[in-house]
Amino acid sequence: MIGTRIAHYEINSHLGSGGMGEVYEATDSKLGRRVAIKVLPEEFARDADRVARFEREARVLASLNHPHIAAIHGFDESGGRNFLVMELVEGETLADLIAGASKDAPLRQNVRRGGSSDPPGLAVEEALPIALQIAEALEAAHENGFIHRDLKPANIKVTSDGQVKLLDFGLAKAFEAQPSEIDVSNSPTLSAMATHAGVILGTAAYMSPEQARGAAVDRRTDIFAFGSVLFEMLTGRRAFEGENVADILAAVLKVEPDWSRLPADVPPAIRRLLRRCLNKDRRRRPQAAGDVRIEIEEADAEPDVSGADHAPPRSGRREHAAWIIAILAASAAVVLAMLAFRPPHESPEMRVEVTTPPTPDPISIAVSPDGRRLAFVASGDGAPRLWLRALDTAALQPLAGTEGASYPFWSPDGRSIGFFAAGKLKRIEVAGGLPRTLADAAEGRGGTWSVEDVIVFSPLPGARLQRVSASSGGDVATVDSGALETPRFPQFLPDGRRFLFFVIGGFGRATLKGVYLGSLDGSEPRHLTDADAYGLYMPPGWLLYVRGSALMARPFEAARGEFEGEPVVVADPVGVDANVYAAAVSVSAAGLVAYRSGGPSRRQLAWFDRSGRPSGIVGQPDENDLLGPELSPDGRRVAVIRSIRNTRNVWLLDVDRGVSTPFTDDSSSAQNPRWSPDGGRIAFQSLRTERPGVYIKPLTGTAGDELLVATPTAIPNDWSSDGRFFVYTNNDPKTRGDIWTVPLDGDRTPAPFTNSSYDESSAQLSPDGRWLAYRSDESGRFEIYVQPFPGPGEKTRVSIDGGTEPRWRADGREIFYISPDAKMMAVLFQSSGAAPGIGKPVTLFQTRKVRGGTGNVLQQYDVSPDGRFLINVNADENVASPIMLIMNWKPPAD
Predict the structure, then answer these.
(1) Is 473 a residue whose pLDDT tops 60?
(2) pLDDT per position as a tens digit, 342-386
(3) Residue 202: its pLDDT value, please?
(4) Averaged over 148-159, what is the pLDDT?
(5) Phi first, then psi: what are they for 412, rounded to 5°?
(6) What is the pTM of this model?
(7) Which of 66, 241, 542, 838 is most buried, most CB within 10 Å of its CB?
(8) 87 and 35 in contact (C-beta within 8 Å)?
(9) Residues forming a β-bridge with 33
(10) Helices 268-277 and 219-235: crossing angle, nearest 10°?
(11) Are 729 and 713 in contact (CB under 8 A)?
(12) How far apart are CA 717 and CA 857, in angstroms?
């Protein structure tokens, strides 16, 4: 933005970043003054209610006039950007001053200390005047009804002449979100809902205990933060420290500051003030900032405890007290030795929200092994891609080249991330650079990275697990999973040889659904537990898995691979994609649990024209999938799959009225509906225990279901327009997906249309019945092909850079499909004898289709007779569903 204009403000330079926006130095061309411009986050600007509330709050804050509080000049909007105009304060932040004094900077150290042997931090004679001005600012604000809520050294500027200015005063309240809204506060500022129970606001190291517990705040919260700031000024160290946010919050709640770090020349009155300000019980803190100001003012007048007629300067008192410190050190050694035999401090369990930009794929999240960073898929600035967020900063980092990514997973050292995109398994270095392709994965279903630098992954549904070198890629080997036919979402155990994986079971097989234990040595996999999504190992000994909507934990001895107790609930509900048996859950090697909160994502059937412009909806948002929409030939009804209590059935929706009625009532699941050409019957896949396969059911009359294909792995694809043939995909464990046809007259003997080692599926017949469009992964990723029907004839490739879910235009002159980055593509098609005329693929629009560009046997859109697109979209995609972090999880007490 440097060199551009926002309204009448010329942007000159970038001053800083934070959860509340980007800050720039600018020139007000109307008044000829320099100002600070804070451009608010883009997701903030999309919420009209919050913008209005923020503007009201900013107007009130503008009335807060005090020499030690940076002024707010105005709140404005230009070009879709909302921004604050604030007083430009020159100088360093208090955080910079403390950091400079704490480093080995001889010049600064000598000026402030008189010797490099002095402790870090600011000298008392420099710290107290700054503290006094902070207290004066707090006093004035509190008297006018304002609470800062996020007081910290980074929000305090000190000018070259020693004048203090508090920044962002009251903005934390202005940024408050309603429940489920976006967290725009600075992390480790953890949430922006200070007054709502159970939610935390503030920066972790400067939080009060009530903030850490999510309780309501008042002016005593600022006083606790003031004490933390003053302690850090005097010692150069934070009052409450830890390796991660959980440790810091635990210290705020349970641990006393290390008072021994205070320099010897800190006056007794200041020591008493610090202890009172940092009292865990807010009732025992100073009740007003004016009391704090008075105690600081009187500290210099307090007589020296040595009783000398002329007290030495404070810098000299440190040398005078050296012998006292030496004596106390010996006593401290004894105390520390005693403490070493006490039980270690147990940090309390904490649950914290971390928000992300909007995402069409809430399932794809992964926490780094050390628990310090999150990787997730989001579409905050365009096409969905991988983003990173460190838990100790508000900065969000999109990773270039990861468009269309899904199912990220970390390397054990936390330096790289594996993911699936564009039909490939890829890796990208967190430090920078573009992704590298490791292997083909036409429709990846999860991966895991071992300490031996081996990646085990599922290349597509129904395929065997594969292994590949994480360093070199290339040569891929099959991982033996015994007779199990649908392994996916592997997760290595700590030994790097054995792994958990999920098997969907069903389809008439004897295979049990659930979590299995496998090994790279080829030993027979073992069923561990029934589940509705994949399993994860959590140190020091728990197996996490999802049952229904609940995240369960069961004691698990990893070395033996055996359970040692009964399961308990960790969280409920958690997000689950029942279509692929994946859950929005991740666990770090350090034991941090991350999951998307809330119930299932709501789906919505929405109309779009060829330009991607919305043109209406069918029915209401639904939490029950709405998978595989299939329009009736007249376009007046749509058949969909709804999943209720983990059982799928076919429902019919009236396009005009939006009313839905059940069509099947199969306790073992019915799915993949396909309308007959006359609209009087529907074929569907039934997973019933007795005689599973493809059935046909009329819409009216008393006739029952008619078995068409007695194959449990048969998936309905299409009817020919003349009613003579039915086309289906058979997922054979040896040849993977193959396309079969069955005549609807005569003996109905099925015959293969394709029979190869490639995965061929999602077949669609042209309106005239002469051509079959389908997808195949023979190129290493799914592409769209067309072939004469019923044959013979050569196939011709239609797509160029990947594709799935082919559909025909009503007149047969176009083929539509979905690209790997979820764009709606169109290809002109002309039938001229045995050789079709096929045009170049063109992009129509970026879809918001459920599951993005990842294709599967369940199509997510259909084309109406008049050329509109009915697409299954995520109704909640513009709501940033938060990622919940569980730190120091503990099972419930008996």
Answers:
(1) yes
(2) 344 456 788 887 878 777 788 999 999 999 999 999 876 567 889
(3) 44
(4) 88
(5) -60, -30
(6) 0.57
(7) 542
(8) yes
(9) 28
(10) 130
(11) no
(12) 9
Average of per-residue pLDDT across 722-750: 88
Contacts of 435 (CB under 8 A, 6+ apart): 401, 402, 419, 421, 426, 427, 428
How far is CA 802 from each of CA 366, 458, 542, 859, rounded to the nearest angstrom? Answer: 26, 19, 40, 16
Task: Select the more confidently predicted residue: 835 or 153.
Answer: 153
Return the structure tokens found at 781: 């990723």
Nearest-Å Rg of the Cα atoms of the chain is 32
In angstroms, the CA 236 to CA 27 distance is 36
Residue 533 has pLDDT above 70, yes or no: yes
CA 30 vs. chain centroid, Å, equals 43
pLDDT for residue 427 is more than 90? yes
CA 375 distance to own-chain centroid: 7
Whole-angstrom distance, CA of residue 208 vs CA of residue 252: 7
Amino acid at 543: L
Structure tokens at 73: 């000049």
pLDDT at 66: 85
DSSP codes, 486-529: -EEEEEE-TTSSEEEEEE---TT-SPPPEEEEEETT-PPPEEEE
Please enumerate, as own/partner, the contacts of 430-435 that have beta carbons within 8 Å and a separation of 24 or more. 430/373, 430/388, 434/400, 434/401, 435/401, 435/402
Which one, of 465, 541, 449, lies nearest residue 502 by Cα? 465
Angular region, 798: left φ>0, alpha ψ -120 to 50, beta rest: alpha
Report how far Cα 491 is from the mean position of its chain's Cα atoms. Answer: 19
Block residue for tokens 């009155």: 269
